[in-house]
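tool_call predict_complex ligand=zinc ion
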Amino acid sequence: MKTRINWPHGKRFAFTVFDDTDHTTMQNGPGMYQYLFDLGVITTKSVWPIKGEHVPKIGGTTCEHADYLRWVCRLKEQGFEIALHNATYHTSKREQTIAGLEQFKECFGEYPKIHANHADCADSIYWGDARLSGMNRLIYNVLTRFANRGKFLGHVESSELFWGDKCKEHIKYVRNFVFSDINTLRICPYMPYFDEERPFVNNWFASSEGADCRAFCQTISETNQDRLEEEGGGCIMYTHFGRADFYEDGLLNSDFRRVMERLSRRDGWFVPVSTLLDHVQKERGRHVISASERNRLERKWLIHRVFGTRGTT
Ligand SMILES: [Zn+2]
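tool_result ok
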């Protein structure tokens, strides 16, 4: 498999962010995205198309809020990619998930191309222990004291939460494992990949750890930025820009600004997640992960969960 990717326009590396919409509101969202736009870092922001009926464990504004929707549509016009983060912030039955997909299309003129599971939704797809195979699943269940065994049912055809067919029909990319390495393509050289054991997902991708501001800044530290560039790598950060620690005294966190400004001045390709993945897939062709590659990837992730900078599930 081709390990080094030729990035467009002779760029030396690629960098993007998948922003999980948890906690994002009209108070904390627009300032962050204006900042990214001004830096020329055009990324991916997820949304909840519909407002839930129950009180969420983790909240945030949904596309049913008119001002918020107007703002997200403006982001799309600016070039940001809009992604799905389940229909809403709590578990949805099949009908509600389908309504969420239709609402997404209504709002943005197309179905979502990319999705990340939300931890509080039992309709999440191949999540919990269903992310792992064979012995790795058993190790995961022991590590998590069986808390996530059979908990997520989006891919289970007999369940009222099933929407795997719709995921297959509409969504090209779904996020899976998260690692602390800045070079996501180095730690997961197979991505984007198809997994025959998880057929309702067309292509999986991995991400680099940036669950909160501290983890984000640690992963994209100056030293790590240098290495990403030397390796000609590709970085997909997974974060929650709605988290309070990205702000201090009403401004964006100063460490965050320091590392982002340094990174944005370098000769990188700063495009949304799907654009980056489309390019990698075009360069390498479609990859079907083998059993031994999957085993290696799952092991690395289990090790990361035990010893690495954690935060993202
Ligand atoms: Zn979430």
